[in-house]
Amino acid sequence: MKKNYHFYAITTIIFWALAFVFTRLALQYFDVYTLSFLRYLAASITLLIIICFIKINKPKKKDLPTFILSGALGFFIYVILFNKGTALVSAATSSIVIAMVPVFTAFLATFFYKEKLKIYQWFAIGIEFIGILVLTLMNGSLSINEGVLWLLIAALSLAAYNVIQRKLTKTYSALESSTYSIFFATIMLCIFLPNSISKTINTPFLTTILGFIIIGEIPDKALF
After folding, report:
1. Can you give the pLDDT at residue 93?
2. Cα torsion angle, 65, 66, 69, 74, sign
């Protein structure tokens, strides 16, 4: 099981898919910034519980800037833009746009790591771009919906995170690299704490639970 990435990949896909639907539901009660904070507060609490039972190594001082950048790109910037975009488009549309993450990741990996794409991979990238083009032409003219634009930038941010994670996972485990990146992102998101407290207090209990289960962050077992 440790060598079989399919289990981790399938688990990631399931939680990833749920995030789009639950985000749309939760945004009916939370604003973008409150939901962003609650999402990673939940993730941080969950990870704190996990590392109480699973020992992980402390980050090296020289790697702290990389973890901060990783948290900023993969969780702080990404989740805010993701929530803003998802609030303006359907869950299905947001899932299609965010599916550009592997495409952006491939381009960035080609530039930074000199990786070469195979023919079928270029073919898959072409299909992705066609999907985005269809979304931008749905109204009969070439215009980019504001929500689609936010989601494209979010996808680019997450792709940059993926590239950074490749470097980190050469030294740290998937759990370690995810945990420290999320911790730093949660600290950044604390700027929304004052507003989040009042919003959460005035939110129905069931909706609060929905906000907390939108973690969607499975350690990067299936990423590389």
Report:
1. 77
2. negative
Q: Does a structural domain hold residue 220?
A: no
CA 167 from centroid of its chain's CA atoms = 18
In a domain, 194, yes or no: yes
Q: For residue 56, what is the enclosing H or E element?
A: none
For the stretch 183-213, what's the b/e string if a residue is b when 16 or more beta carbons lie within 10 angstroms of its beta carbon? Answer: bbbbebbeebeeebeebbeebeeeebebbbe
Q: Per the domain annotation, does 63 fall within a domain?
A: yes
The mean pLDDT of 127-156, rounded to a whole number, is 74
Give the separation between CA 14 and CA 187, rounded to whole angstroms: 27
Give the mean pLDDT of 202-220.
54
Region 190-216: mean pLDDT is 67
CA–CA separation, 54 and 193 (whole Å):
29
What is the Cα–Cα distance from 22 to 103, expressed in whole angstroms? 25
Contact (CB, 8 A) for 212 and 38: yes
Residue 23's nearest CA partner among 154, 215, 180, 159 is 215
Q: What is the pLDDT of residue 45?
A: 93
